[in-house]
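ugh ok so i messed up the first submission bc i forgot one of the chains. this is the corrected input, ALL of the components this time, i swear. 591 residues overall. if the numbers dont match what u have on ur side tell me asap before i send this to the collaborators (the ones from the other lab, u know who)
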Amino acid sequence: MRPTSGLAHALTIGVAAAVVVLALDSAVHVLMAQNPFGGPRPGADPQVGGIVGWLLSKQSEFYREMSSTIRAAKSDGSAVWTLLVISFAYGIFHAAGPGHGKAVISSYLVANQETARRGIVLSFASALMQSLVAVAIVGICALLLNATARTMCGAEKVIEIVSYALIAAFGARLVWTKGGGFIRALQAPQPLPSMALAAAAPHDHAGHGHDSHHHGHSHAHAHVAHHGHEHRHDDHGHDHAQAHVHDEHCGHSHGPVPTELAGPGGWRRGFGTIFAVGLRPCSGAILVLVFALAQGMFWAGIAATFVMGLGTAITVATIAVIAVSAKGLARRLSGASEGGGALIMRGLEFGAAGLVLLFGVGLLFGYIAAERVTCL
Amino acid sequence: MNVAMCRLLGLLLLAGSCALGAGAAQAHPHVWITAISELIYAPDGSITGVRHAWTFDDMFSTYALQGIETKTKGVYSREELAPLAQTNVESLKEFAFFTFAKADGKKEKFQEPVDYFLEYKDAALTLHFTLPLKTPVKPKELALELFDPTYFVDFQLDDKNPIKLVGAPAACQLKIQRPNDGTASAQKLSEQNFLSGDNSNYGAMFANKITVDCP
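and heres the new structure output, hopefully the right one now
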């Protein structure tokens, strides 16, 4: 490794990040102005408006029905079923709106060459965590401590800031790692077919023991001729960046912690996403729980919260699977073109990593309007 | 390389819109307020301030009352609710009290709220407060808007007598424009927000507009 390459790496990542930011600026600006997760697409078909309005009115409708249903459930047990159905529907519709980590999870999946299966698991796990956090907040603050709404809302705000900071930190790590892969792809001479084939030859990683010592080996091998070649080393516990590009160092670049972030096989990274995203509870769930508690129906509120989470997970998982499939499609399309394919894919991953960072930073500092806890 | 870069950027944007676009829905309100407001006039016909009475929905009222100790369970006196009213008006400051006034097209500022208190009746909390104008105005046209730009709070003017002009000159004419219902606002959303790209003031579509013309 050249002595200056660390600095060069950092600088190039910075420049590349700036380019990506500029490229995304117009789009992101529009998104950030209102909310990053339910972004309107410029020049969208007017029909979208109808769908948005419909989603919006449905959400409000289900949400408003919850309070009367909880009241009814006090005297009529069967109303609990109605409550669960409403909560489930609300979860499905509500998750289509801002928040609930759709964008973060989807971007993470795209950046990390994750599978659809893992996307589904992450979506469900983070929704489950959101529900648990909501129940914990209300259980501890309201039920045990009899804290006021103001205190609870303050706690929500703190948790929210921590969650956004985690997302930003997570995005920064992704950008760093994926920036490395992207730069190597940029620096790589247009690979010759023989080189690509050589790279695609089976490697024996067994002796490397990358997981046992965290030196952060980023394996850079250009699988240009073999797009879609999956490194599924789940069972071995290896963390191989899919950013496999053979540059002159033949792949051993000592980046910061690339192996900790990239590639399939790293459930630990997945937990990071679940934690960052799932930490922030849904204000709606908190309101429902407090209301249920006041009606002496706390258990019904808890049930409603988890069913809501289930609905949320279904929507988020659907979107995550769409994002992963879209990347698969991009991979196939770019694979059809010679040479630039690897670059495009690395760029795509880098861009997705940048999005995670932008969301985190935007949420944290911009306090994107629709995404913040409002304490009255 | 240029071709590749262009394609790359295109794909990045595609990925971005895939990650985001599928959820084109917006936030929905978590708090519903039914508002009755009064415009207060000085004897000389100038407007001195706005007096609000905001009734919160069932769910939010219950939520807000969490942890408030009372002598009698379920009965909340004005005194017992005083700390909460204090919290409310302090918090509302951050949101400019969701009240936006323009006198002949010029934005007017409000002072700190006065005479604020909460009332609990029929399982609902009502927040009363008065917002004095920084400087009383005597415009030909006063426009008052009531909305939450982030649409966390949904404002609805009361069905009967939502706006009262207290001590206004007899010639003054009151006009009220309520936000459209769901379908109509969706229409507006697609036209204004999606096409213009300016949706920073999303909640404005659900604004209640009050205009008073005094010739």
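quick check: Chain B touches chain A through 68 residues (CB under 8 Å). that seems consistent at least. Residues 15-26, 181-200 of chain B have pLDDT under 50 and may be disordered.
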